[in-house]
């Protein structure tokens, strides 16, 4: 089971790892709205998160067995899946900003 973000954040801070990085709060600050849609007659739930810059990310969930479907749980999973995509996008953006400030043979080509 994955460790939760709060415990990871506490560990990062306790170790004094303070170079530029993303935080859960930064990711949450990018989200300005969210919409959900459940496809009728299915267990498929989609979450669209609108971001501060106007971009949207999509997360989805589906139960293999209709008997196990719970719309609230489906929404939570779809939201988490969409939010996880923001980490990758923001990570790329941060790395690009850091690379722009690097000079020398260690900078990405």
UniProtKB/TrEMBL annotation:
It comes from the Bacteria. Pfam families: Phage_gp49_66. This is N4 Gp49/Sf6 Gp66 family protein. It comes from Aquamicrobium defluvii.
